[in-house]
Amino acid sequence: MAASVLSLGPSSGWLTSFAVLPGTVAYALMATNLLLATRLPVLERLFGPLDRVYVAHRLIGTGIAGLLGLHLVLIPIASEVDRGKSILDNLGVAVPLGVLGALLLFGSIALAMNTKVPYDKWQRVHMATGLAFLVLTAHMASAVSLWFSVAGPLGGLLGFFALLGLTSLIVRVVGKARGGVRYTIVETLRRERGIEIVMQPEGARRIAQQRSGQFVFLTATAGGARETHPFTLTSAEGDGRISILIRPSGDWSSAAQTGLAVADQVRVEGPFGAFTPSPGPDAEQHQVWIAGGAGITPFLSVLRTAQQASDADTAGDPAHGQVELVVAAHDADDMPCWEDLCMYAHKLPWLTVTPAFSARGARLDERAVDRLAAGKPEGTVWYLCGPADLTSMIQHRLQQGSGTRRQVHRELYEWRAVTGRRR
Q: What's the whole-model pTM score?
């Protein structure tokens, strides 16, 4: 694309080429970001786990804002230098459409980055990025002939990204309207500072077979508000029913503690993600799982799957590598399913559960991580799930404090932005 744009230099002027380049790249990235937002299963096969795809989505959005701003600054200068006239001399519809599209995009990105904006309002307003793409597509269509030939290589590239973005936008809007597969809540279980809801499909249609540690998007009504949120599945692999844990971290999730009840109908999309620790006979011989608060959810799914397999195995518990599960919380009343974890540690001979409760003076800080890592054999594999500040610190200490690079798997617990929690 850069070569196609810069090839305009001899005919349109070099400054014009440099002015058009950031605008065309921004447009291509907008189309790409709309594709990344579709949640199509193929995205994980192409680009990796969806939590990381969404991190890329946020970073690309920031880059788009910078490129579009640069384009808006350079275009009027290029027109004056290369053509000797102001773009204001012949406004047409291109300039107003470009300004409107840019304002819509800047506003949407600003709201997305402002974590003080409530999730429900952000979720609705963020759809303005789709409207911005439509407006900027109209801007491009009306302005393109003024700067270069539509039949040239650059015109073909922009046509491709226009088709990609418009198709992705349609897929996302239709997917949002459908909201996923219909499920019914069949059980609600009170958990430490939260509620676990158990769901079963209404008919023959259901989500794809989950792997322990994956997550889904749940669309449900609580407190009069219908919202979509991602939650890690806590159910065992192969269960006909699925379950998730919801802890109060905002208006909707707080309302869900009493607002979701048996017989309520919900929608489920997924499963997604590749944070799938495995304690099976083919897994690594030594593993350490670290869960911060609600970061226990993927490990719950793994342990429930393992417990079911152990109960069904009449020949005895199959061989496993050794797993130490470290749970970080204020105290036992703050750790979801603490009694279940103790039960699994008793029943599964390969599992050790180590509490890191700050109320007991066992805070999981840098020194504690160093002590934990010092006693582990070479080749130990680490799985981290919890608040970003905690898992980031642990990952940093593990990779900094070792002569050899440790194998660390970290789920990107934060979803919306730096302070937006996923569960």
A: 0.79
